[in-house]
Write a structure and sequence with these properties.
The chain is mostly helical. The protein has one domain. Helices cover 68% and strands 1% of the residues. The protein has 8 helices and 2 strands. The protein has a two-stranded antiparallel sheet with strand order 1-2. The chain starts with 7 loop residues before the first helix and ends in a 23-residue tail after the last helix. This is OSTA protein.
Length: 300
């Protein structure tokens, strides 16, 4: 078994990381109870979903650390959950503005700046798009498609993996892993782009709601769960991370990634509790709120 093959420092590390995961779960449960009691029902489920991202990723990483054969399923579970969280974060920003109707009234003459990351941060020549019901629909569709198509692609990957056709670290053009990964990457960029466009517009209005620290925590989860994991997997595939018998390079890279994620998600869970637990005042009515300097001011 895995525990029998560990030396004393290894067992201590595994025990410490497991304890951190359990603490993260308890912190989230306590926070969920607080949110359920104190937050209005219109925002309650969305905020609980967003707060659950870090402890869920920590839990799946802990299971993958103890049961190496489950890594495929735990990674996919975390990926599906976070795809839903990205959509929930966009919906949270709309809810914090008072809902879609109130947001449209607040920014009646406003425009979305679409030259933002991660897709078009260098395309400064792109026109600004008027804020209408239709543009809001396209932004919501940009995150909703990710929440729908990523689970479908992950299910397809699992089916191919059980049949022996899908190898996670085989990125040759003839294998399905490369094409599925590229397609998921493109869907991810479009979803993050939609969230970035909305955040750039509402960050000043929602500054009183601490939207900037909330967005920073969300960005950290994106970077650590996707970019960090991809870099470690790439280093392991190229044998830059050396093997340590009985672990191969890819298995050792997977262990390193899971252990880092547990520690990082533990810290994010604790910080999220501080950020989301604060009591915030409601925004002023739309007639009292001025637009950004670049937009026309709304006439009362």
């Amino acid at each position: 078994s895995l525990s029998a093959g560990l030396d004393l420092p290894g067992r201590f590390l595994f025990a410490t990381l497991t304890l951190m995961t359990l603490i993260a779960i308890l912190v989230f449960i306590e926070e969920a109870v607080y949110i359920y009691r104190k937050i209005p029902s219109s925002k309650r489920s969305i905020i609980i979903w967003i707060n659950a991202a870090a402890p869920v990723i920590s839990t799946t990483s802990c299971i993958g650390m103890w049961v190496p054969r489950s890594t495929m399923f735990t990674d996919f579970t975390a990926g599906i959950f976070f795809a839903i969280v990205i959509h929930k974060f966009l919906m949270m920003m709309i809810k914090e503005c008072g809902g879609q109707k109130v947001l449209l009234r607040r920014f009646e003459n406003g425009h979305f700046t679409i030259s933002t990351g991660p897709c078009c941060c260098c395309c400064l020549c792109l026109p600004r798009v008027p804020i209408t019901r239709q543009t809001l629909f396209w932004l919501k569709l940009g995150t909703f498609q990710f929440a729908v198509f990523r689970p479908v692609l992950i299910f397809l990957s699992i089916v191919l993996w059980t049949n022996g056709n899908y190898v996670l670290y085989n990125l040759s053009p003839k294998g399905p892993a490369l094409w599925i990964s590229c397609f998921i990457g493109a869907l991810t960029l479009f979803a993050l782009w939609a969230v970035g466009i909305m955040f750039r517009k509402v960050r000043i209005l929602l500054k009183c709601k601490n939207i900037i620290p909330k967005f920073a925590l969300y960005q950290f989860i994106v970077i650590l769960n996707h970019l960090q994991t991809a870099i470690i997997n790439m280093l392991a595939t190229q044998k830059i991370i050396p093997c340590a018998p009985p672990l191969s390079s890819t298995a050792r890279g997977s262990y390193i990634g899971q252990q880092l994620l547990i520690m990082e998600m533990f810290l994010i869970t604790v910080i999220s509790r501080v950020v989301y637990r604060r009591k915030y005042h409601d925004l002023e009515p739309p007639e009292c709120v001025a637009e950004d300097p670049g937009d026309k001011k709304q006439t009362p």
